[in-house]
Every structure is written in C-alpha cells, then in structure tokens.
Write a structure and sequence with these properties.
four-stranded antiparallel beta sheet, seven-stranded mixed beta sheet, alpha/beta, globular, 395 residues
Length: 395
C-alpha cells in the first residue's frame, strides 16, 4: 500500500479531545465525570437566535450562497467590530468559514510557503505549530512565562526573527493562560511587524471574554491594518460551539485567496446559520455580557478554591475561561496528576504540555461550568490529592 502524505506524520492532535475521549469512555462504564477539559460554555444561544434560525429555514434559506458569506452577515460583523473593538473594516474584508479552525487553517494555507517561519506563543493553541508543519512551514515558539505574567517578550520575539520569518501569531486573550496582552506589548509587536514586514494572525476568539478594561485589537495599532488577519467566531462569545461559525477579517489583497480556498473546499457556509448569527451579533437580550459576568464570578471562586489544593498555584486569568495552574510544587508530573484526577476523582483536565513545552509544569482547567460543578470538582481533587502526596512521600 502506498503511504499517506508526509504531512500527516508531522501534524498533531489536541490534548483536550484526547482527554475528552477517555472521559467519555469512563462515563460509558457508569463513572461520574466532571468535564473541565473542553473550552465549551455551559450556556446556549438566546431564544431570538434560535428563532432566527428556524425563521431562516422556514423562508427557504437553505441554498448555496456567496462564497465569502451572506452579505448581510458580513456587514453585521463589520458593525460589530466597530462597536466592540473600534475597528473600521468593510464587509468586503470579511470571509465566513465553518468554524474558527477552518478560518485559521485557510489563512495559514494562503500565506505559508515551505520553509517560511511562523512565530507562535508557547503555551498556545496546538493548531498553530501543527498546521504550520503540515504546510511545510517552520514553527518558531516564543515563550509565555509566569515570570513575565504570561505576556509575550518582544525582545525574545525580535531575537527570533530571521529573513525567513513571515508570520507572527498572537492570541489575546490567550488559550490556555487567559493572558490579555498589554498595550506596551502590543505596541512593540506592531512595531516589529512593520519593521520586518511580517503578516500577523491575531486570534481574537476570546476578545469578548475579558474581565475588566476595554479590549484592543492588534489591528488598531499604526501600520497594522494592511498586515493583520483577525480570526474570530461565534463559539466562545455567543456559546455557539456546535454551530461551527467563524470568520477571517483580512486585508483586501488577501481576501481573493481566502475565497479561492473556500471554493476548493467547503464552497460556502450553511445559509440559515448565517442568518441566525446576525441575530447573535445584535444581542438584544445582552446575553454575552451576562455570560461573561457569570464567568467572572466563577473565576473568583474557582481560582480561590484551586489554591487550596496542595501544590497548586493559580493566578486569576484576565480573559477567556481557563485556570492555568502551576503544579511544580506537587512533585508529580502534570500527566500523572491528570491521570489521577480523571481515573480516581472523575475530573477531566489537560496537562499543560499539550499546549507546548513551556506548559509542562501546568494543568489547564476550564471554568465554563456551573459554580456548583466547579466546587464539586475541587472537592474531588482535594480527596484525590492524597494519592499524589503519598507518591511523593514514598520517594
């Protein structure tokens, strides 16, 4: 038999989905599992969004539509970005995709040639290096260190730029750390991008899930409008994970390439879901602010409770809905701790190395579950902590 394409040997999966698969196996065996591994809000779209979907279906909006997406939705996204991020973009700069991962993949496919270097955050979303490798590019990590409050270090990034560097990937608020890049950091990153003529992929999927202050997109900085592609969507801010709706905001010269890739892959996004997305952006009921307000309360309680666990150290994230816990003082690896928590306590979480080598002494928990569920999870972890404390004592 002929072998698979060589790219399949260098691409990687996602730790979250691997843990989720094992957790579901245990559930099928009758075990009680608390799922804190997936970044999925426990909310649902508002009734007006669901009604808009039904209305679109009733009106026969189930046909092929424009490759870039329904114009009305793209106009709504342009207004939404102006209202929430003070960005002035045209509907012509927006390309709708069936999820943010596809939007990210298509953007990287449009930009990366074999040998091109891509700077990306470590720890960070596993897709960044995986897709880069699959396209023949060279992923170059820059560290998000606790010593620097998980902010990118512009000096480190500057030192890693070479003549082959083509793309800088940013993610603020970040997964898994919850870091919101400071103005000083973003200004320096923008200066580096302009100085070295870099394209920037700004992953802003958590832009609305921020706890205090006003979110500022990297596209807002001088010289960035013509070199920045924003990746965003509806999964996190609007609790529409299963709807698979994302989009790219790109400079005009790049939009035709994204459309060409869409033509050769998914053709267009389901028409009826796009009309529902328009209603989500209007957010007449204030669903998103209420959801983020609830996440803020959970953040306070969950971080406080996690710091009661022996050997756990957790700072409050500034955005997203993840607790990034340093476990170095437990004396046990993150992988072993996650195994104990899942197999013995029924709590699913992700070892930090799934997000890059810089995360090897961390564990990521999602706090997108109810307060009662999070409290129960910590109580289970506290009981299970006796297992790893015994392991350390016997060494």
């Amino acid at each position: 038999m002929r072998p698979l394409a060589s790219r399949m040997a260098v691409m990687t999966g996602e730790g979250a989905l691997s843990v989720y698969a094992r957790a579901k196996e245990l559930e099928r065996e009758g075990r009680s599992i608390i799922h804190l591994e997936l970044g999925e809000p426990d909310f649902h779209p508002s009734a007006s969004v669901n009604n808009a979907l039904k209305r679109a279906l009733d009106e026969g909006k189930d046909r092929y539509c424009a490759v870039a997406g329904v114009l009305t939705l793209r106009e709504a996204i342009a207004r939404y970005l102006h209202g929430t991020r003070n960005l002035k973009v045209s509907a012509n700069n927006v390309v709708i995709a069936p999820g943010c991962k596809i939007a990210l993949f298509m953007a990287m496919m449009a930009l990366i040639d074999p040998g091109d270097e891509v700077l990306y955050p470590d720890p960070g979303f596993p897709g960044y290096p995986s897709i880069t490798l699959g396209l023949g590019g060279v992923p170059v990590p820059f560290e998000l260190s606790g010593r620097n409050h998980f902010q990118p270090d512009p000096d480190e990034i500057a030192a890693k730029i070479t003549p082959r560097t083509k793309i800088l990937i940013t993610n603020s608020p970040g997964n898994p750390t919850g870091t919101v890049y400071t103005d000083e950091v973003q200004r320096r990153l923008a200066e580096l991008a302009v100085q070295h003529d870099l394209l920037v992929l700004s992953d802003e999927i958590y832009a609305r899930v921020i706890y205090g202050g006003q979110y500022v997109s990297l596209m807002n900085y001088p010289g960035m409008e013509e070199r920045t592609l924003i990746i965003d969507g509806f999964s996190k801010s609007f609790a529409m994970t299963g709807w698979r709706l994302g989009y790219t905001v790109a400079p005009a010269r790049i939009v035709p390439a994204l459309q060409m890739l869409a033509v050769n892959s998914y053709t267009c996004v389901a028409e009826f879901s796009q009309y529902a997305a328009i209603e989500a952006l209007r957010d007449r009921e204030g669903t998103t602010p209420r959801m983020v307000g609830e996440f803020a309360k959970r953040r306070e309680q969950f971080v406080r409770d996690l710091n009661r666990v022996p050997g756990f150290r957790c700072s409050r994230p500034e955005g997203a809905f993840y607790a990034w816990v340093n476990i170095s003082e437990t004396g046990v690896s993150a992988e072993e701790l996650c195994r104990i928590m899942l197999e013995e306590a029924g709590v699913a979480a992700i070892p930090g190395a799934a997000f890059g080598t810089a995360g090897r002494e961390f564990i990521r928990f999602s706090f997108a579950s109810s307060t009662a569920t999070l409290q129960e999870a910590v109580e289970r972890i506290l009981r299970a902590s006796a297992s790893w404390q015994r392991t350390v004592a016997l060494r």
